[in-house]
Amino acid sequence: MHRRQFLATSLAASAAALSRDARAQASPAVSREYYQLRRYQLQNGPQTKLAEAYFGEALIPALTRMGMGPVGAFSLTIGQETPAYYSLIPCGSVEALASLDLKLAQDAAFLKAAEPFWNAPATSPPFIRVDGSLLIAFEGWPKLTPPASAKAKRIFQLRTYESPSYGDHVRKVEMFHKGEFEIFTKAGCRPVFFADTLVGPRTPNLTYMLSFTDTEELNACWAKFGADPDWKQLSASPRYSYEAIVSNISNLVLNPLSTSQI
What we know:
By secondary structure, this protein is α+β, with helices and mostly antiparallel strands. It has 9 helices and 8 strands. The protein has an 8-stranded antiparallel barrel. A hairpin with a 5-residue loop joins β2 and β3. The protein is globular and about 55 Å long.
């Protein structure tokens, strides 16, 4: 009798443990972040100084109060249509990012600090235009990884891959999860984020950011990446090489503004 009870208890405990393990495996260990990436098209002159002051004195402090960050603030160094500034805002809630401007408009401290930029007259606008995208982090890289020091010498490469179809886009994202993350790391590139575009122009596309000390290191790391045997094997796979799964690449080099947290 005692033996039967012992076996029943043991089986029940084992079943419970298996159930817990199954639930743990089914639940993701880390939730994926969302990013708002904005591009501020500017004109040379007062607009650049006004925008940088807005980032440092109004926007980033307000986002920090909301629990968002680290926030990136960058100037476009290499790319089309300079001058342009970029902001990168990470958050665990897509709703919070989608309604961000509405919430900022209710923040008295923000409005006071942002007054010169937020309420600039039409005769002297603070920017030409602002474009934005809403992104979600890749499953295999669910959180933003800033450089070790936000004060060290650094540049950032922002790359966007457009695909000719949604199927090709899915295959390109798959390539990152099948080995590209590791190849980047081996080559000395320092990934900051990888993300799918949920809302934005020229979809389907993905965007990612890498960090380097300078353009010399950037070029050396990409040479290592291209020569890596694992990359050659991955890119030659029939699943990814039977047609061009990337139809256009946007390649920008950014410098962090003094107020950037990344």
